[in-house]
Amino acid sequence: MSSNQLSCKACFAHAKKDIRIDERVLEYTDEQVVVKVEAGGICGSDIHYYQEGHAGLSVLKHPMVIGHEFAGKIHKAPKNSNLKVGQKVAVNPSQPCNQCEFCLEGKQNQCPNMRFMGSAQFNPHVHGGFSEYVVVSEQQCFPYDESIPAQVMAFSEPTAVAIHAINIAGNLVGKKVLVMGAGPIGGLIIAAAKAAGAVEVVASDISERGQKIALQMGADRAVSPTDKAIFEEFSKNKGYFDVTFEACGASSAIASTVLVTRANGSVVQVGMGASPVEYPVAQMLAKEINWKGSFRFINEFSTAVKWLEKGIINPRPLISNEFPYQNVEQALITATDKNISSKVLVTFFE
């Protein structure tokens, strides 16, 4: 199996507040795919690596290419591949081992050996997609209609997260849904819930900007969590919503989900949030509420690509800024300010 090399530039996080555009040499075999990256989205984990030098327990131990939400076009494909040079693809950053008990049960998002692109969980770290070129497997590449902008298809990964949350919730047809937090994931959950048949979707966000975006993403109504009268109304008669998606991670929001969700309803926890949380266990128990976690995605990535391609979900209202990769530090600083930013994109167009 012959080895090949390619030199390019990439966005490396070296340490806290230390992001650089460095030259890198990519090595790849004839069986691997080389993708010319076109656009990527900045996620919360990218911001944490820049602001703190770690994302949760994943600490930077050496320079790492950030980014796991990205799309591009095929630069090089294996000889007998279905992929063609120049073809546009969304890239799935998830690389499960497909050998452990979880993978064999179809629960790849629980794989303890997951090599997720742009993650410092393992050492050496797994480089991400904020690079002029990346080397991936054929299985990670999902072709899409070339008429769709790469900026839209860069939402494939967070859209997969949203669709997975919908699948965790179960059948939403005719259901009343609350989405707490109208950031990028919350906004995509709003759109996915409408697509999945929810009869009413209410969004809760502390900022007027977030509420406006929620309405643009398809919410029937957008409210502020500080409006006590509205939430008292939602809490009457053992709750109003059949399903509540908690997508902001705020302790107060997590606790309030039990009050506004109907007896025998479901709460899907998507926001990571901070611990500890004062959770009303007695009310949860008495109302027999199902509290479910939703983590990453499994096979929903292919669905996300199709929904974006067909316009079933339109992520454009979430795009707040776009920067060339040479200005990645400015992009990260901008993305950190949630008063002005939802999804900040980084582009690699020539």
UniProtKB/TrEMBL annotation:
Cited SUPFAM superfamilies: GroES-like, NAD(P)-binding Rossmann-fold domains
Domain of life: Bacteria
Needed cofactors: Zn(2+)
CDD domains tied to this protein: idonate-5-DH (cd08232)
GO molecular function: metal ion binding; oxidoreductase activity
Classification via Pfam families: ADH_N (PF08240), ADH_zinc_N (PF00107)
Descriptive protein name: L-idonate 5-dehydrogenase
Residue ranges of every copy of the Alcohol dehydrogenase-like N-terminal domain listed in the record: 30-144
Domain spans labelled Alcohol dehydrogenase-like C-terminal: 184-309
Keyword match Ribosomal protein: no
Alphabetical UniProt keywords: Metal-binding, Oxidoreductase, Zinc
TM region positions: none
Record family assignment: Belongs to the zinc-containing alcohol dehydrogenase family.
